[in-house]
Amino acid sequence: MDFGLFTTWNAVYVGHKVPWDPDYRGGKLLEEAAYAQNWKEVQAVEDMGWDYIWLGGGHFSTQGSMDPQPLMLSAAIASRTKHLKIGTSIHRPILKQPGDKASPRALPHERYAFDNLMLEDPLQVAEQVSIVDQLSEGRFIYGAGGRTRGNDQKREHFFEFLEVMKQLWTEDHFSGFEGKYYKYPAFYDKYLNIPKPVQKPYPPMLLPVDSQESFVPMGEKGYRIAIGGGTSPHNLRGYAVLKEDVKRYQKAWKAAGHPGEPTTVVRMPTLVCATKTEADRQTEQLMTLAKRYYAGRQGIGSTDAGSASPETAADANLFGTPEEVVDRIQFIRDNFSCDEIMFEVNWTASVPRESVMTTMRLITDKVIPAFK
Questions:
Q1: Which of 5, 145, 326, 368 has the most CB within a 10 Å radius?
Q2: Domains and CATH numbers, the chain
Q3: What ranges in the chain are assigned the alpha helix state H?
């Protein structure tokens, strides 16, 4: 199995108290300190030999995330690391048709972005991905999402966005694209082109599944998927539903004739402590803050694909001692064809940074060796 750090490039405040902590007294957001601390964590997982770092984030939500531009941040990380693979989880292009409105579930920062940002163009995103893959010398994974929940047209639009990029990366000379949502003429002169990525035919793609309706289309298209934990041995209905969803994805993949085995990446809230007593204490504290975070709509997590609500995380988590975490990962691996865990070690941006580093060290020393 492979193991990656999921981070939303979390903020740091004076006094190290987040705004949803009852002890918060209005401490200022420390942007320079936040970037320095997050770089420290990136370097730690590089030095510890982890496989991946996954960058989540969103526009206009600095209270929870300092990462509105995951492709730009990926390029920066590529220049400071040598071995770590770098993925976006996720880059979310603004895709909409005339008359589209933001989802009623959207948080204020998501609604503002949907209503006011210009649409992202697949030609320009393809250029950016190629640059990141070149700078990383082939260490980049493009994770993308289109907020397609319950909307077949949005899903179709999103898939067409990806098809334009794949054609640009694979053709020596772009022959033009004629689709339902995008229409581009062929490059009309031999010198016209975009940079090509190092990885051929293009960087791997990872698409977080944002609804049950998406499992089969993802399999039919041959995309690797990321899912939230969504279940545990103690949540039988969730276990059964998610397991069947993954089976439908696998069946669709194989029926479409795609090569290889369809596997999943599972993103899980994670907190590891040396003792059971300490794990229970920190888990209780984290769950209390997470409930305040969601109740006050302070952060970015509640509508992101793969994110865990406090209700879900109460059952589906990697909270505990290293031995407990190893057991849960074995369960996830065996039941969901999982070959990578995305550790969300600062779930809801509520974990003290010293606890984040402790979790990372214990995962390195006592969890990962059980699977390598």
A1: 5
A2: 2-370 (3.20.20.30)
A3: 31-48, 70-80, 108-116, 122-135, 152-170, 215-221, 236-255, 276-295, 310-315, 322-336, 353-362
Q: Is the pLDDT of residue 95 over 70?
A: yes
User: Following DSSP, what letter does each residue of 127-173 receive, concatenated?
Assistant: HHHHHHHHHTTS-EEEEB----TT-HHHHHHHHHHHHHHHHHHH-SS
Query: ∠105-226-267 over CA atoms, to 5°?
Result: 80
- At residue 227, φ and ψ (nearest 5 deg) are -130, 155
Q: Mean pLDDT across the stretch 68-95? A: 96
Confidence of residue 62 (pLDDT cuts 50, 70, 90): confident
Please state, in angstroms and rounded to a whole number, the distance separating the CA atoms of residues 27 and 30: 9
Average pLDDT value over all residues in the chain: 91
Percent of the chain clearing pLDDT 90 (strictly above): 74
Torsional class of 100: left (φ above 0), alpha (ψ -120 to 50), beta (otherwise): beta
Residue 12 is predicted with a pLDDT of 92
Question: Are 74 and 86 a contacting pair, CB within 8 Å?
Answer: yes
Per-residue model confidence (pLDDT) at position 108: 84
Q: What residue type is assigned to position 117 of the chain?
A: L
Q: pTM higher than 0.85 for the full model?
A: yes
Torsion of CA 266, 267, 270, 272, to 10 degrees: 30
Rg of the Cα atoms in the chain = 20
Residue 35 has pLDDT above 60, yes or no: yes
State which amino acid sits at residue 226: A
At residue 227's C-alpha, the angle toward residues 230 and 347, to 5°, is: 70
